[in-house]
Amino acid sequence: MIIPTIQDMVEARERIAPYIHKTPVITSSFINGVVGAELFFKCENLQKAGAFKARGASNAVFGLSDEQASKGVATHSSGNHGTCLSYAAGRRGIPCTVVMPRTAPQAKKDAVKGYGGVVVECEPSTSSRESVFAQVVSESGAEFVHPYNDWRVIAGQATCSAELIEQVEGLDSVIAPIGGGGMVSGTCLTLSHLAPQIKIYAAEPLNADDAARSFRAGEIIADDAPVTVADGLKVPLKDLTWHFVRNHVTDILTATEEEIIDAMKLIWKRMKIVVEPSSAVPLAAILKNKELFAGQRIGIIITGGNVDLDKLPWS
User: Fold this and answer.
1) Computed from CA positions of residues 241, 191, 234, 98, in that sequence, does the dihedral angle turn out positive or negative?
2) Mean pLDDT per segment of 10 residues, for the chain of length 315 residues?
3) DSSP states along 196-207
4) Do 54-144 and 6-51+151-302 fall under one CATH topology?
5) What is residue 232's predicted lDDT score, i.e. its pLDDT?
């Protein structure tokens, strides 16, 4: 297991600069009033390919040697990582294959194909995803870029919070959604070195709360096929992301399906930005735990905006 360093983050930031946006931070005085705290939303929904995962994918793709890159890259993904890896591979001019659950939003399948990626479908479970993927890699010899349990990917995701603490001074806490833990791990990597006074929280759907249960048990607990509207947060922690979570996260908070949808609606209505359900989980967790965050300056990482507009969760 290779654990990324703060120097890896610094190098990633330079490497990916030509291929990503420095995303804006926006605020809502209305939501601040509801919460009783100052919230600063880091809008990775406005990132290239619509999600923060463009950072990690670009770092992995552009860090490959020419020999490694010649056979292309491959991954398994419920959507955003696959889309972003296809985006990065397209910028480098190499092939990309993505194994996706057949139940993944059509918008995300279309996005992968739109960037030139090839979609191979599997059943909506971790076990099916990994077995189909193993066959894909054995046939192509492509470089595996794991959606989150990859030091190159985590170093790329770490650049997000590096931008955030330059854009907003005096943060007390930062909170991000957690599924496999790539963004949370990157946040831990950066903040533990550059701003160790900032508390790091993760937010998770109650229907897919394996990270929260792992955190309390002190060991990884994996669910195979949880059902939640937050489709980007169904995957379990792995050894590398668990390293960061258990060493640096203050707590993992959960929210119900109804709370997630209400938070998503609130962001759409009041902030006028499109965010996917996974991105609304941190706000849902804050609204549920107002007393924990009262009076704080809180950074919230809005992880993506790739929504299937034909299947909105409140339709």
Assistant:
1) negative
2) 96 98 98 98 97 97 95 89 96 96 84 94 86 91 95 98 98 97 98 98 97 97 88 92 98 98 98 97 98 98 91 88
3) TTSEEEEEEEGG
4) yes
5) 87
Architecture of 54-144 per CATH?
3-Layer(aba) Sandwich (3.40)
Separation between Cα atoms, residue 29 and residue 210, nearest integer Å: 33
In the sheet where 297-302 sits, what is the strand order?
Answer: 25-26, 38-43, 297-302, 173-177, 199-205, 251-255
Quote the pTM value: 0.94
Q: Which helix or strand (DSSP H or E) is residue 10 part of?
A: helix 6-16
pLDDT of residue 224: 77
Could you tell me which residues are beta bridge partners of residue 301? Answer: 42
Token couple for 315: 């339709």
CB 59 within 8 A of CB 15: yes
Structural domain boundaries in the chain: 6-51+151-302, 54-144
Query: Which CATH architecture is the domain 6-51+151-302 placed in?
Result: 3-Layer(aba) Sandwich (3.40)
Residue type, 100: M
Name residue, tokens 């299947």: 311
Helix residue ranges, H only, the chain = 6-16, 29-35, 53-62, 66-69, 80-92, 106-114, 126-140, 151-167, 182-194, 210-217, 239-248, 257-271, 277-288, 290-293
**Cβ atoms of residues 72 and 89 within 8 Å:** yes
Nearest to 214 by CA among 179, 189, 190: 179
Number of alpha helices (DSSP H) and beta strands (DSSP E) in the chain: 14, 10
